[in-house]
Write a structure and sequence with these properties.
This protein is mainly alpha-helical and 205 residues long. The protein contains ten helices and no strands.
Length: 205
C-alpha cells in the first residue's frame, strides 16, 4: 500500500510538471496560475502545494525534467573516447543538442518557455542566474576541450582556447534563438549540421 501511494504521488508530480509545461507554453509564465496548472493536471490546488512550494519551484522542476537527460546525452558525446580530436567531440555534442531539440517537442517547448515565454521579474527575478547556469557550465566544458585541442595540436594557431570557447558558446546560443524564432518547418534545422561543421572547420589546425 505504501509503495502504491508513492507511485501515485510520483504520477501526480509528473502530471503537474507536464501540465505546467503545457500551460506555461500556451499562456506564458507570468499569466499562468497554479489554479490553471491544477485544472490542466486534473488535480486540486492543494495537490500542487503538496509537491511544489510555488510556481518558481514548479518551473524549475519542469526545466530539470528536460535538462538533466539532455546534459547527460550531450556530455556522452563530448567525453566519448572514440573522438581522438576534441574538436570532433565538441561538434558531435552540439549536433546532438540540436538533433534532440528538433526531434523532441517537449524539449523544444521547454526552451521556448525559458527564452520567450518567461519574464524574469517579480517572483522570477531571483531565478535568472540559476536558469543561466547550464549555459555557463557548457562554456566551461568546451573551454576545457579547446584547451585539450590546443595542447594536442588540433586547434588552429593564433586562436586561444578561451576565445574559441566563447565564440562557440555565442554561436550555439545564437543558433538556438534563431531556431526557436523560426517555424519548425522553416528548413533551418536541416542546415544546422552544415553550419556546425563550418563553424568548427574555422578552428581546425
Amino acid at each position: 500500500m505504501v509503495r502504491k501511494t508513492k507511485e501515485e504521488a510520483e504520477q501526480t508530480r509528473k502530471a503537474l510538471v507536464d501540465a505546467a509545461r503545457t500551460v506555461f507554453h500556451a499562456c506564458g509564465v507570468s499569466r499562468s496560475s497554479l489554479d490553471k496548472i491544477a485544472r490542466q493536471a486534473g488535480v486540486t490546488r492543494g495537490a500542487v502545494y503538496w509537491h511544489f512550494q510555488d510556481k518558481a519551484e514548479l518551473f524549475f522542476a519542469m526545466r530539470e525534467d528536460v535538462f538533466i537527460p539532455m546534459i547527460e546525452r550531450t556530455d556522452a558525446f563530448l567525453y566519448d573516447a572514440a573522438y581522438r580530436n576534441p574538436l570532433d567531440a565538441i561538434a558531435a555534442s552540439i549536433s546532438e543538442f540540436f538533433r534532440v531539440l528538433d526531434d523532441c517537442t517537449v524539449v523544444r517547448e521547454v526552451f521556448e518557455i525559458m527564452i520567450s515565454r518567461c519574464e524574469y521579474v517579480d517572483e522570477f527575478a531571483s531565478v535568472q542566474e540559476e536558469v543561466g547556469r547550464p549555459a555557463q557550465e557548457f562554456l566551461e566544458k568546451i573551454e576545457r576541450m579547446y584547451q585539450k585541442a590546443a595542447a594536442e595540436g588540433y586547434l588552429r594557431a593564433g586562436i586561444s582556447p578561451e576565445a574559441a570557447a566563447r565564440d562557440t558558446w555565442a554561436f550555439t546560443s545564437g543558433l538556438l534563438h534563431l531556431l526557436l524564432g523560426c517555424r519548425k518547418d522553416s528548413g533551418l534545422a536541416a542546415e544546422i549540421p552544415g553550419m556546425i561543421a563550418t563553424h568548427m572547420a574555422l578552428r581546425r589546425a
